[in-house]
Amino acid sequence: MNDVVAALLEHRAFVISGHRGPDGDSLGSALALKSGLEQIGKQALVVSPDAIPSAYRVLPGIETVRRVTDLPSGYPVAVLVECSSLERSGLDGYEGRLVLNIDHHSKNPLFGDVNWIDPGASAVGVMIYRVLQSLGVETTPDIASLIYVAILTDTGSFRFSNTNPEAFRVCAELLERGADPAFLATAMYDNMPAAKARLLGRALTSLEYESAGSVALMSLPYEAFLEYEGEPDTEGVVNHAQAIEGVDVSLLFKEMAPGRFRISLRANESADVAAVAAVFGGGGHPRAAGCTIEGDYATVRERILGEVDRRLPGGAESS
Amino acid sequence: MNDVVAALLEHRAFVISGHRGPDGDSLGSALALKSGLEQIGKQALVVSPDAIPSAYRVLPGIETVRRVTDLPSGYPVAVLVECSSLERSGLDGYEGRLVLNIDHHSKNPLFGDVNWIDPGASAVGVMIYRVLQSLGVETTPDIASLIYVAILTDTGSFRFSNTNPEAFRVCAELLERGADPAFLATAMYDNMPAAKARLLGRALTSLEYESAGSVALMSLPYEAFLEYEGEPDTEGVVNHAQAIEGVDVSLLFKEMAPGRFRISLRANESADVAAVAAVFGGGGHPRAAGCTIEGDYATVRERILGEVDRRLPGGAESS
Q1: Domain spanning B194-311 has what CATH number?
Q2: Which candidate in B176, B183, B190 is best for mutational testing of the A interface (most A CBs within 10 A)?
Q3: CATH 3.10.310.30: which residues of chain A?
Q4: Which of B148, B158, B180, B188 to mutate to test the interface with A (most CBs of A within 10 A)?
Q5: Alpha carbon A34 to chain centroid distance?
């Protein structure tokens, strides 16, 4: 952390970027850092490589975020938060900057001039909080709310295994500094678009089970998306199958075009769905992955189930 | 708290009971107190007025809980946790006991011989944690897990407005003492019965909206329950409608018998659904209520919507 703090003290103007598909941790961390830097007389601009999902419109300062393509000159130092690569920040086309790389993923490839990676941090927001404390920044209600959203969302409302004592201690302090936990949780989680609720309902009514109930399958046929206005949002739908008693692996088949299935996979500790997705040219993490397969539904279903079965406990490639 | 601690130190054997419809706070608090009392050489038995939902089978010591009707003699002191009345503990038929009443609801009617009510506590689990600290009890991994579940569930995974700095600070300590946040959250929340997932899907596909999208309605017809084995579980289903963008009030119509609708109501701060339910002989809280109306669906729907509309912002009885 000390190198990051030194670089922030040394320079005057910073462009801060999160990653593609901005989320609560990248946006909350970036905006909290901007606010803190401004408090000590620095200049800072937050840019985003992608459009910002509507849930985050409650974040203080969100209206100042520019698209990375609108970045003006005059920001010789870039701070990248929670980016697995320079490309993921959208700043890869802008050479000649000093890059500070702040992340909590152990596989970060250390692409920065200064790299600070702490896999022990629940969220990058926790790391930014430490930086701001070190810089002597006062935790305003805005900063408290921003760091709180970073921790809240990256721990899945304190349900994921990255939830740790430091995250809880920091949250205690943030509440004392003005973060409103119920308001922010409602803004983050109670905002499902009506059309998405219908898609979720349709997916749940399609539920079927294989392997004695340990594999749950849901499907959304092409016509379900036809009636959807705009970009269909199925983020999180597969998690509802994963939350069913006895389910180890969940699959959601989305027929994005006739005969073309985008498949979302989730697993608990008992199987590696990234390996399943990789067979079909997809990718992800052991617990959450995705791939695309073309064919008729019955064939696609059979092909992927075969790969899932081999990796379930007792299957050919189970450990 | 001091009177409670004094009474626990003075006596030797305790029966501990939570409330009807046991939940994470009442069970976690009761079992943590039992474990702590045993650690300092006391005798304690946890009883429950109702059967224990399966989610709580992961609680350490849950196998020792007896139904209140099986209570043996020899427990002259009763500790009631999170009970709004003696009747709610199931211990009202057992006269002659010293009653310690520990609760965090401000409306607790102080029915005990010793009453300790702290509306500032996120959960009764936090109060029990303070008692155990005061008694010099070591926070074992079992006690840590029990108190953690109490706080986790009573704050809705830290999303409700009772989430406060003390809750977060206590949780930090509980994690250091061996509570596993991801394991416990999965046990509490990722356990939806498969049949309930189908009911939820059916309810979501029935979604319709009134009052420019501010009122969401879902319905489950009688035949949806006919195919359900055992007692139909619709707990929490209405919350999925309440989580939709722009929705202020949600209604779930459950046709439990032909022409007999049990209605669950939820609201944000903009309306008082307890007042709506009261019109039809039901009850609840301003944000969560229920009632039963007989008639055909169209009529029932119209009657209750009329009452809801009057209480929406701009309606006849809005404030």
Answers
A1: 3.10.310.30
A2: B190
A3: 196-311
A4: B158
A5: 20
Alpha-carbon distance of A123 to A106, in angstroms, equals 12
For residue B207, the chain A residues in CB contact (below 8 A) are 194, 197-198, 201
Each residue's pLDDT expressed in tens, for chain B with a length of 319 residues: 999 999 999 999 999 999 988 999 999 999 999 999 999 999 999 999 999 988 999 999 999 999 988 888 889 999 999 998 888 888 887 677 899 999 999 989 999 999 999 999 999 999 999 999 999 999 999 999 999 999 999 999 999 999 999 999 999 999 999 999 999 999 999 888 888 898 999 999 999 999 999 999 999 999 998 877 777 788 889 999 999 998 999 999 999 999 999 999 999 888 899 999 999 999 888 888 999 999 999 999 999 999 999 988 877 776 5
- Nearest CB among A176, A209, A241 relative to B165 is that of A176
B101-106, Cβ contacts within 8 angstroms, sequence gap of 24 or more: B102/B4, B102/B29, B102/B127, B102/B128, B102/B131
- DSSP for residue B244: B
Torsion angles phi and psi, residue A111, rounded to 5: -80, -5
- Cα–Cα distance, A216 to A208 (Å, whole number): 6
Nearest CA-CA distance, residue A245 and chain B, Å: 4
> Could you tell me if B228 lies within 8 Å of chain A, comparing CB atoms?
no
Interface test with B, best of A57, A159, A233 (most B CBs within 10 A): A159
Q: Which of A163, A194, A242 sits opposite B190 (nearest CB)?
A: A242
Given an 8 Å threshold on Cβ–Cβ distance, is A194 in contact with B168?
no
Asked if residue A203 lies in contact with residue A240, where contact means CB atoms within 8 angstroms, the answer is: yes
d(CA A310, CA B199): 31
| Residues in a beta bridge with B117 | B103
3-state secondary structure A246-274: CCCEEEEEEEEECCEEEEEEEECCCCCHH
Chain A residues touching B152 at Cβ < 8 A: 158
Record: contact B182-A159, CB cut-off 8 A? yes
* All CATH 3.90.1640.10 domain ranges in chain A, comma separated: 2-189
Which DSSP helix (H) or strand (E) runs through A132? helix A124-134
In angstroms, the CA A125 to CA A103 distance is 10
> Measured between CB atoms, does B168 come within 8 Å of chain A?
yes
| A2-189: CATH architecture | Alpha-Beta Complex (3.90)
- Helix, strand, coil % over all residues of chain B, rounded to 5: 40, 20, 40
| A160, B172 Cβ separation under 8 angstroms | no
Q: Which residue ranges does chain B devote to CATH 3.10.310.30?
A: 194-311
Residue B80, H or E segment: strand B77-81
CATH number attached to the domain at A196-311? 3.10.310.30
Q: Given CB atoms, is A178 within the 8 Å cutoff of chain B?
A: no
Instruction: Find where tokens 């003006």 sit.
Output: A72
Based on the number of CB atoms within 10 Å of its own CB, is A51 exposed (0-12), middle (13-18) or buried (19 or more)? exposed
